Each structure stands twice: as structure tokens, then as C-alpha cells.
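Re-running Lipoprotein to confirm reproducibility after the cluster update. Everything else is unchanged from the original entry.
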Amino acid sequence: MRVNVLRLLAGAAGPALMGVGASLLMDRQQDLMGVLEWLGGAVVLHDALIAPVVLLIGLVLVRGGVRGPVRGALLVAGALTAVALPVLLRPGPRANATVLPLDYPRNWLLTLVAVATVTALLVAAKEVRGIRRRPPS
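Result of re-run:
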């Protein structure tokens, strides 16, 4: 019963927040085209580049039970890259230094290293668990 109530609340919160976002967007008519271009670009980037590359790499390079963690890591890395692209494609000084005060390319690379490290640990744990379960020959 509790789970159903939680699902109902989460299901209601999504459209409610989408409505708030749409109303805020309609208040600022000049931003509408920029938002639509960004959303369209995100869909094209995902469907034409990220998803096929992830599936192809997962299919070609990885065999067995580690395919899932590698595909998951590639999806996370692709999403992080898509979010970081505006900052990565426009490096350099800005008119207002407080707008983007951090070293975003370095942080993006550190995050990708963290994703790769966690994935390697997951794959290693799966291998160790698989070795322990096999009967001695």
C-alpha cells in the first residue's frame, strides 16, 4: 500500500513540475527557441551518437557477464559528456568570471575517471564472485 501511494505521489509530481517549467518558459518567450533547439540537439545527440556507440562497444568489446556494467558506464559517460559539451566547446575567459568559476574540463575528466574506476571495481567483483562459485576442477 505504501509503495502505491509513493508511486502515485511521484507520478503526480512529474507532470506538476513539468507544468511549472512550461509556465516559466512561456513567460519568457524569447528563450523558447533556444530551449527547443537545445532539447532537439539533445535528442539527436543521444539517438544518433551516444546510444549506438554504447551498444556497439558493449557488443564488440565485451563478452559475458560484464557487458552490463560496461554499457552502464558508457551511458553515464555519454550523459556526462552531453551535459558538459557547452562548457567544453567554449573554453576561454568569460566577461563575468563568477558565471562559471570552476575548471569544468578537469572536473569532467575526473568524473569520467571515477566512472571508469567504479566500473572496473564492479567487473573485478563479478569476476571474483564467479571464481568463488565455480567448483574446483
